Amino acid sequence: MYKVCWNVPRGQCSSADILKAFDDAIHDGVDVLSVSLGTDLPLFPQIDDRDGIGPGSFHAVTKGITVVCAGGNEGPSSHTIDNTSPWILTVAASTVDRSFPTGIVLGNNFTILGQAMFRGKEVGFTGLVYPENPGLRPTLFGVCESLTLNNTPVAGNVVLCFTTMNNRAPVSAAVTSVKQAGGVGVIIAKHPGDVIGPCSNDFPCIEVDYELGSQILFYIRSTRSPIVKLSPSKTLAGRPVSTKVAHFSSRGPSSISPAILKPDIAAPGVSTLAASSPFDPFMDGGFALHSGTSMAAPHVSGIVALLKAIHPSWSPAAIKSALMTTAWKTDPFGEPVFAEGSPQKLANPFDYGAGIVNPNKAAKPGLVYDMGTDDYIMYLCAVGYNDSSITQLVGKSKTCPSPKPSILDVNVPSITIPSIRNSVTLTRTVTNVGPVNSVYKAQIDSPQGIHVAVRPDILAFNSSVKDLSFTVEVSTSHKVNTGYYFGSLTWTDETHYVTIPISVRTQIIQFYTDFN
């Protein structure tokens, strides 16, 4: 473990410390680096030393070290993804098939299931109140993060409040206010989400969505003496709890190189039991429940370590490809993966990259999209970094070819075309890591209004043919500027299904250099 962050004014996680940690790790001969760090938007260029992670990870990857990075917690807005270099394995956060239903029984015997981590004793039927402003804005007093309880009988009662914020701050604020006023519990109505945690000293703080919160409020307003009973939380695992991309998880496309898909993969990062420090207000016995892509990245790092043990000769790019091409597009029960947001929607590659990480399948991917240092240098040339900057990063003289290579030809296990007006043709190369004599056929799921043609559409490998290239021609039938449409390309030998996501946006009116 390498400490790079410090609790000092304006210091915190300096690029000098980050770069030194990468250097030390390379010198120590590590196999995997898990980096739960990021930078604020707007992002620095990927070879700028002020970033630290970009240049440092480049040197680690060229030494065969897989670098796994958190994608950031600025979701669900688009273009918020961090750690966007193609040599990095960037991780989004998903939920797990676990929830904590907590019973709320109203005085009219109507039962509601909220979400909480309440392990205390049942709160028997007691008063239920909502702070109402007698003025022109009746709901002003009932905002969780700024509760006004002066005119509300709180002592011995449960308080209902509402918030539009999605983090834990309103919950903490409401609990503090209600406890100080002698209340015995809080019901927080908020945007649906899975980020929950215990409140201090097992004080009941139960989260519900706006719909259920409104039903509770209607009961309060229609009843002379509303009462409520709060039950301890239960744990529900497996069905029917669905997997979702977390609301906070940063989304693509990349703000500095949109033709490179980010994030790459998603992994559990919500309400994860993690070792913590004594300064953590949620810490209990050395551990706390935390959420973030910083929780998701170590899951993938552990999987990478297992893959390295099975395939010690695989490059970081091969490992990333194996994870991406075998990822789940559904949850483990075959149900679609949704992305939390406003509103909730079906997840796409900008939410979870190639999908939810699937460790067992990744061990035998069949084919991989491999890359080495020269491929990353080609990417840097394609993006437009000058020769001197690339030379400084690489440590030896490098000159970009003329004409400049196409970024669409960078051999990543995805196809992302930010701007197409007519048609484009790009190239990919796959390496056989499965049975020596294998024949793969292409299966195409074209994005809506997009035609995709693969040539050749059959790849035959044998003892002397381990690498094969193919071209992908993509054309659009759209006549107006569109958003992104999504599809996929799968190579299969009926045993392995090697799938990469396709993301295409039509731009008839160009706002920047196109890829036609």
Automatic annotation (TrEMBL):
Species the sequence originates in: Cannabis sativa (Hemp)
Alphabetical GO biological process terms: proteolysis; response to symbiotic fungus
Function in brief: Required for arbuscular mycorrhiza (AM) development during AM symbiosis with AM fungi (e.g. Glomeromycota intraradices).
The protein's name in its UniProt record: Uncharacterized protein
InterPro entries: Peptidase_S8/S53_dom, Peptidase_S8/S53_dom_sf, Peptidase_S8_Ser-AS, SBT, Subtilisin-like_FN3
PROSITE patterns: SUBTILASE (PS51892), SUBTILASE_SER (PS00138)
UniProt keyword annotation of Protease present: yes
Alphabetical UniProt keywords: Apoplast, Hydrolase, Protease, Serine protease, Signal
Cross-referenced Pfam families: fn3_6, Peptidase_S8
GO cellular component: apoplast
GO terms assigned for molecular function: serine-type endopeptidase activity
